Amino acid sequence: MAKRKSKFVCQSCGYESPKWMGKCPGCHEWNTLVEEVEATKTARGNWATGSGTTHKPEKISSIQTQEEPRIKTKMQELNRVLGGGIVPGSLVLIGGDPGIGKSTLLLQVSSQLSQRDLDVLYISGEESARQTKLRADRLDISSERLYVLSETNLVDIANQIDQLKPGFVVIDSIQTIYKEEVTSAPGSVSQVRECTSELMRLAKQNHIPIFIVGHVTKEGSIAGPRLLEHMVDAVLYFEGERHHTFRILRGVKNRFGSTNEMGIFEMKEEGLTEVLNPSEIFLEERSQGVAGSTIVASMEGTRPVLVEIQALISPTSFGNPRRMATGIDHNRVPLLMAVLEKRVGLMLQNQDAYVKVAGGVKLDEPAIDLAVAISIASSFRDRAPHTDDVLVGEVGLTGEVRRVSRIEQRVQEAAKLGFKRAIIPAKNMDGWTVPASIEIIGVNSVQEAIKVALGD
């Protein structure tokens, strides 16, 4: 009888080793190597003989293509994040914290697609069919073309897909699905890799879009190896605080669209509803006439979003002042404070600094630099900026304010929400049409922007 071989596989990065080690050489995590039995050749297939089918290379100029229509859902926010709708034959991975609303979102999407003459198969490996029905009743979902299957065996799932031939499939979640030929436990690296590979084959061959749910680790990344994210066509993250009603759907990988798009939803009793104008939501609790509060026009993909930035500067009680930031890169705060101290003359070296983006949004573009700098200067001088001002601009190390992209869309969004002045880089003043209801002020340096915003 042939001896079964085993190997040790890291559950974080997929590193393989013939023996156990306490620390993984690949990702340097401790106690993540787990023993797994290698699959036999009959299970994996003999790579030397091939599968019997051969594909010859073709000239790229002779390959015929056609524009395939996307499947539109009733959720415009989801369509935007996906790049215009669901692409037939695509494999999409959705990750998020437990209880954030992934299953609720996909069940609502399944219901909407089933009402468009599509057979939808919702496969739950974590809940029974009756539990899924209870959730559907809470969401007021009922459709004759929405099928629910409680199964974790990949072979049975593939057989049901072949028999039903649905137009849309949901797998909730990939960590619960297992393949019998792979001897490791469900959720392990080998199982996730093999199951995702089989689902990708089903999606491409049958031209069926498949959405799979992935668990996340305590660091916030999708559990399992990074290989899982490389295999799928799109990776979406569902973010938000569990104790708050707003949820943000963000794309980090998309082969069929931009990765800069963001969709905002609100969790209500009847399920997730779209937030079509997020700027009003983020500004509804804005503190007016308070030092340290500014408004920035940021771009999330192709959509401008106005967000409040708050700063609090107070004398430090320790030898090393604290620099804390929420919603922006924490390295950006000490950099801008150094520019203010060197170029403007603000003595911030003995001050604690706390910067926050209100509403739980994460901003990572350089166009928010000017608003952060004005917030810090406003709090330090205890002088409130004008409440009708919106600021946009990148700040360089020499104190200059550099041009930003899509300035026209940013200013139009500010004018639509009733702002009277927009302080922007002077290099962005020409080449576009200014709305009649807003005044545009171009600045060349941070010092000039402070004089305009704070009235110095």
UniProtKB/TrEMBL annotation:
Alphabetical list of NCBIfam families matching this protein: sms (TIGR00416)
Pfam families linked: AAA_25 (PF13481), ChlI (PF13541), Zn_ribbon_LapB (PF18073)
Residue ranges annotated as motif RadA KNRFG motif: 253-257
Secretion signal span: none
Renumbered residue ranges of the record's region Lon-protease-like: 352-456
Task of the protein: DNA-dependent ATPase involved in processing of recombination intermediates, plays a role in repairing DNA breaks. Stimulates the branch migration of RecA-mediated strand transfer reactions, allowing the 3' invading strand to extend heteroduplex DNA faster. Binds ssDNA in the presence of ADP but not other nucleotides, has ATPase activity that is stimulated by ssDNA and various branched DNA structures, but inhibited by SSB. Does not have RecA's homology-searching function. Plays a role in repairing double-strand DNA breaks, probably involving stabilizing or processing branched DNA or blocked replication forks.
Protein name per the record: DNA repair protein RadA
Protein species of origin: Gracilibacillus thailandensis
Any single Gene Ontology cellular-component annotation: cytosol
Keyword Methyltransferase in annotation: no
Domain notes: The middle region has homology to RecA with ATPase motifs including the RadA KNRFG motif, while the C-terminus is homologous to Lon protease.
GO terms of molecular function: ATP binding; ATP-dependent DNA damage sensor activity; damaged DNA binding; hydrolase activity; zinc ion binding
Annotated HAMAP family: RadA_bact
Binding site for ATP: G96, D97, P98, G99, I100, G101, K102, S103
The RecA family profile domain, residue ranges: 67-216
Gene3D superfamilies recorded: 3.30.230.10, P-loop containing nucleotide triphosphate hydrolases (3.40.50.300)
Family assignment from sequence similarity: Belongs to the RecA family. RadA subfamily.
Keyword annotations from UniProtKB, A to Z: ATP-binding, DNA damage, DNA repair, DNA-binding, Hydrolase, Metal-binding, Nucleotide-binding, Stress response, Zinc, Zinc-finger
Classification via SUPFAM superfamilies: P-loop containing nucleoside triphosphate hydrolases (SSF52540), Ribosomal protein S5 domain 2-like (SSF54211)
PANTHER family: DNA REPAIR PROTEIN RADA, DNA REPAIR PROTEIN RADA-LIKE PROTEIN
Keyword DNA damage on entry: yes
Region (Disordered): 42-69
Cited CDD domains: RadA_SMS_N
A biological process term (GO) from this entry: recombinational repair
Family matches, as InterPro entries: AAA+_ATPase, DNA_repair_RadA, P-loop_NTPase, RecA_ATP-bd, Ribosomal_Su5_D2-typ_SF, Ribsml_uS5_D2-typ_fold_subgr, Rubredoxin_2
